[in-house]
Amino acid sequence: MGEPTESGPDAAAGRGRAALIEDGVEFDGRDAALLRAVDAAGSVAGAASALGRSRARALSRIESMESAFGTLVERRRGGTGGGGSRLSTAGRDLLDRYERLQAVVAASAQVPETVLGGTVTSVDGELAAVDTPVGRVRGLHDDAAVGDAVQVRIGADAVTVYKGDEKVDPNATSARNRRRGRVVGVDAGETVSTVRIGVDSVTFRALITAESAARLGLTEGEEVAIRWKATATRVVAHATESN
To answer: What are phi and psi of 125, to 5 degrees?
Structure first.
């Protein structure tokens, strides 16, 4: 089980993206929108309808979040006053925490990237698999084809750092890219710190809040695991440089 941490916005792609991570469960903008909709509609069904999602899928997502973050939505059965749902104190606190994180990372002027050179080995819909110096990496592509020389660009805001003994298979098929490495250094900021993680000959960068940096207690040379979503990874064709 990894330590809880926080990830910042996908600024490299021009979109604000913040995420809170607890026990491997991510709480991001879609989840915040779901909780806000429950608060506004007074029911999960009404929230799902407002967001264009199915009630079953909304309930399933709430249950997944509650497995990590605790009770977020209080359900009331029908009766003389009618049924419905409302946010718990923990749910409101989680929303407040997410909004504070989003404000912090949105204020960051620039988000560093890790850039890998590689060759496309397969394309499956919007995702491409690329052989890189750190193994096979998956990401969103723009008309890439098998055999193309590409850059794989990974925003530091998309990388999550975990401590523990989690086993990692770099070439396993997954919606997340996973690697193990060692902390090269931590560049502390007032509100956001940059962690540098060495994986083989490549240095990855991850943005975490000062709160998470203190909680993780990362030290130089310490072994850690990193993850980043394939959908937060950009594959850019016809690149020649890497780092």
So the answer is: 65, -125
Residue in the structure block whose two tokens are 């990590």: 68
Q: Environment class of residue 205 by beta-carbon count within 10 Å: exposed (0-12), middle (13-18) or buried (19+)? A: buried
Give the tens place of pLDDT for each residue, 170-188. 555 455 799 999 999 988 8
State the burial class of residue 146 (Cβ atoms within 10 Å of its Cβ: 0-12, 13-18, 19+). Answer: exposed
What pLDDT, in 10s, does the model give residues 120-147?
Answer: 999 998 899 999 999 999 999 988 899 9
Give the residue among 233, 6, 199, 205 at the shortest CA–CA distance from 99.
6
CATH number assigned to the domain with residue range 5-106, chosen from the 4 options 2.60.120.10, 1.10.10.10, 3.40.50.20, 3.50.50.100: 1.10.10.10
Q: Which two tokens stand for residue 34?
A: 């779901």
How would you classify the pairing of strands 202-209 and 160-162? Answer: unpaired
Distances (CA, A) of 198 to 124, 143, 173, 184: 29, 30, 22, 6
The pTM is what? 0.55
